[in-house]
Amino acid sequence: MQGNGIVGRSDRLRWSADAGEIRLFLGDSKLVDSSLGAIARVARGNADVQMYRGNFQIGDSPEDITELEHAVLEGDRLLLSAGAGAAPLLEIALAERTLTDGALQLRTLQPGLDRIRLRLVGQPDESFWGGGEQMSYLRLNARHFPMWTSEPGVGRDKSDPFTQAMDAAAMAGGDYWTTNYPQPIFLSSRGYACHADVSSYSVLDFRDPERPTLELWQDRATIEFTAADTPAAMVSRLSSRFGRQPQLPDWAIGGAIVGLKDGERSFDRLERIIAAGAKVSGIWCEDWAGIRQTSFGRRLFWDWQWNPTRYPDLPARIQNLKARGIRFLAYANPYLAVDGPLYLEAAAGRHLALLPDSDEPYAVDFGEFDAGVVDFTREETCDWFAERILAREMLDIGIDGWMADFGEYLPTDVRLASGEDPMLVHNRWPVLWAEVNDRALRSRGKRGDALFFMRAGFSGVQAHCPLLWAGDQSVDFSRHDGINTVITAALSAGLVGNAYSHSDCGGYTSLGGKVRTAELIMRWCELAAFAPVMRSHEGNRPDDNLQIDSSDELLACFAHWSRVHEALAPYVRHLCEEAERTGLPAQRALFLHYPDDPECAAIQDQYLYGADLMVAPVVEEHAVERRVYLPAGEAWRHLWTGELAGPGWITASAPIGAPPVYVREGSGFRELFEAVRKLAAPSA
After folding, report:
1. In sequence order, which residues have a C-beta less than 8 Å from that of residue 277 and are 6 or more positions away?
2. Residue 333: which pLDDT band, with cuts at 50, 70 and 90?
C-alpha cells in the first residue's frame, strides 16, 4: 500500500482455507479472517422506533445474541456456529452480481434471527469513505454511522447547548451521522468498495480500525464487493452500478436560480435583482401552491396545485419569463395536507397509506398540520401522482423544475398497499419518490430539460434523481450544521454516483435566535458560484432574515457571483459531459485525483471542481485568510491574482469577494478562467 492509494485488483471474490483458518479475498485484499476471532454474530431484535416530525430515535433490545466462532467451509458456502458440534446459525455463500466483482449472500438459519453483524478485516493505516451523503465527516474512520433516512437535525452536535435545546423541544437536534441520504456502502483505500444491498436499518462501524463492521437488521442480505485500481476508477464503477444522471440542462448551469416566496410581489423583486446586474436563469417560487403560517415559520400549503390568489395568471407569467430565458420552478413533496382537495381525491382513489388496524388513512404530524402519506408501493398510485400532479398540475402549465422535498418521513407503523414491513421500506421511500418524479419527466419528454432536485436518498436514487441539494443547513458557520457541511455533503455523495450537488445559498433553518448575517450570505454566494447549480433560498423565516436583495451591498454581491457562475458554464458543461461518460462528480474529494498523497484522505473543506480548479471556500466566521492544501505534482495558479502557489499547505489571503481558488497549470480552460478572473470583485 502506498499512502492512501488504491492498490487492489479486479480479481473475483474467493475463499481460502489453510490450516483450519478461513479467509475471504478480493484480489490481494483480505476481507474476512477467521483467525482474528468471530466473523459474525446473530441475534433476535426488539426494535423501538420513535418518530416526531421526521426525527427518529431508534433503539434495540436484542435477545439470543450469539457469537459465531466456528466456521466450516463447504464449497462456496461458509457455515457459522457458536462452536464445534453446534447447529449452524448463519450461512455466507459466494454469489455473482452484475457490475461487481462478487457478493456474499448472508442467511440466518433459525427462524426469528433477524440481526446480523459481520466483521471484516482492516489495517491500521486504512482509510474509509462513503455512507451516502454525510455532512460532518468525509473520512469515516474511528466512528460509527447508522443508516436511516431522516431529518438530519438542527445543530447536529450533542455537546452544543443549541442542539440540546432542539432535542428537548422536539427531538430535533440530530447527531453527526444523521442525514437525509444514507447509503450502506464504504470505499477502502485498500482498493475495494463494500455495499450492503439491504433496505433495513443498518450500521457502518469503523471504531475499531482493524475490524470494520456491518450491522444489518434483517435475516438475509447481499453484500457486494467491487475493486478498482484507482479511486476515480472506483467511483466510475459504482456510478455504473447505481445509475448515472443525465447532463444538467444549459439553463440550470448558466446563471442563478433566485428563490423567492413572496407571492406576486416575487416578480417585482426579480426585476430589481436582474436590474442590479444578476444573471438569472430561473425563479423558484416554492409558495406557488399557497402558504401556511406556523410557529416554525412560513410553511407551504401541501396541496400541489397552482394557487391563483397568491399567483394570478401564473401560466401566462411563466411563458413570458421563459421567452426571456428564465425558467419557473416550484415545489412538491409526497404528502397531502388533510385540509386540501387533493387529499380527498387521493383518499377516494385509495392512494394513501393506512393506519395499521384500520382502513382510515394514516396522518403524519408535520408541525401544526397533518398530512396523508401517498403510498408509492402501489403502482396505480405512482402513475396517479406522476400524471395527475407532477405532469398535469406542474409540467403542463410550463413549470420546468421543482424541489422534490422530503421522502424521509415514512412511519414504521403505517400499513402499505404492498403488505411490506415499513421497517424495510422506510429507507427505500426516497428512491420510490425519485422514480415517480422521473416518471413524470419521461411522460412529457422533459428528462434532461426540466429538473427536479432532492435532499432525501438511498441506494438506487442515483438512477432517477438528476440533482441533489444538501438539505436544511442552519443560517450560520457552525461546524456540524452550517455552511461548511454542504461541501462534505457534495464530496461524500459524489463518491457513490451522484454527479451534481448544490445547496440553499444563505442557509435555511433560522431557530433559537439564529439569523443570517451579511457575511454569511456573501460567503455562501462565493461557494455557490463554484457549484453546478447556484440557487438562493429565503429560509424558513424570511421576514426575520437578511435576503439577497435586502441591501444594495448584498444585491451587488449576489449579482457578481451569479455572473461568475454564468462565466463558468462552459467548464461545467465539460464536467457534465465527463460525468455522463465516466460517472465522476463535478465536485471531487482531493484523494480522487491524488490517491498517493496521505494529506488528501481527510480534507473535506475544500474540493476539486473537476480536475482543473481547486476551490477552498471560506466557511469560518470573520476569517480573512485560510489554510489551503495544494497537492504536489501540479503547479497551481491563484485564480484572482495569477500568482503561483504551493505545493503543500499554504495560508491564503481570503477577503470577502476573493475566496481562495486555484487553477491547475496546463489546464485546457485557461482562457475561460482568465475571463472569470476579470470578473473579480473590487475587493479582490
Report:
1. 556, 559, 560, 563
2. very high
